[in-house]
């Protein structure tokens, strides 16, 4: 498979045959998605703007040819925004994702502050290999080959992220969710990860828009 990071939490995954693409989390902190190869399916982990931006979504799912799967608490807003084919993203095997086997897990959004309400967060396992946690640091079931690891957020403590990565111990870690970080902080966090990831785990930091074979 090929993985392309579009900045922040947004990625495209292309299957082995190259015949299908899915996109996860076209949010406001991703790069401009104008001109990006159109995905066959869009999946949204939760409704926060940095994961779901309606202007970005319209660029990659302008009509019913691209279904958009969202958690229950985002359905009404996405439909009201004019998205043509909106479907429920619920825990379990996800039917209707073209070219991919996808398993969804309801995992709690990490706490930003105790009085702030939190959205439903749906973590995603793609083809039993690539794990996108949304905004959760809850360990997924089973073995993870490629972990998309959040690196910068108001809910995030770097030591907890490192512990999460060490606990999961994937073959590859690809940092995501760093759209709000200054470049100096990205380098700092990347350096710490490189030192503290477990033996056998490779840190890969692709440039925005670069396709990575995984």
TrEMBL record:
<dbReference type="InterPro" id="IPR001279">
    <property type="entry name" value="Metallo-B-lactamas"/>
</dbReference>
<feature type="domain" description="Metallo-beta-lactamase">
    <location>
        <begin position="7"/>
        <end position="177"/>
    </location>
</feature>
<dbReference type="InterPro" id="IPR050114">
    <property type="entry name" value="UPF0173_UPF0282_UlaG_hydrolase"/>
</dbReference>
<dbReference type="InterPro" id="IPR036866">
    <property type="entry name" value="RibonucZ/Hydroxyglut_hydro"/>
</dbReference>
<dbReference type="Pfam" id="PF13483">
    <property type="entry name" value="Lactamase_B_3"/>
</dbReference>
<protein>
    <submittedName>
        <fullName>MBL fold metallo-hydrolase</fullName>
    </submittedName>
</protein>
């Amino acid at each position: 498979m090929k993985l392309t990071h579009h900045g922040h939490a947004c990625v495209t995954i292309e299957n082995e045959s190259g015949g299908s693409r899915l996109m996860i989390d076209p949010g406001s902190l991703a790069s401009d998605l104008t001109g990006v190869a159109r995905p066959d399916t869009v999946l949204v982990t939760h409704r926060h703007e940095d994961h779901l931006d309606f202007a970005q979504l319209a660029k990659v799912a302008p009509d019913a040819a691209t279904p958009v799967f969202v958690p229950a608490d985002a359905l009404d807003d996405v439909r009201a925004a004019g998205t043509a084919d909106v479907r429920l993203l619920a825990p379990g095997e996800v039917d209707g994702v073209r070219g991919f086997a996808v398993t969804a897990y309801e995992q709690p959004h990490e706490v930003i502050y105790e009085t702030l309400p939190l959205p439903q967060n749906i973590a995603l396992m793609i083809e039993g290999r690539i794990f996108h946690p949304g905004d959760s640091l809850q360990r997924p079931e089973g073995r993870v080959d490629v972990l998309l690891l959040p690196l910068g957020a108001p809910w995030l403590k770097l030591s907890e992220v490192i512990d999460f990565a060490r606990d999961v111990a994937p073959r590859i870690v690809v940092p995501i969710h760093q759209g709000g970080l200054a470049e100096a902080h990205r380098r700092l966090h990347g350096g710490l990860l490189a030192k503290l990831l477990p033996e056998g785990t490779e840190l890969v930091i692709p440039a925005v828009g670069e396709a990575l074979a995984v």
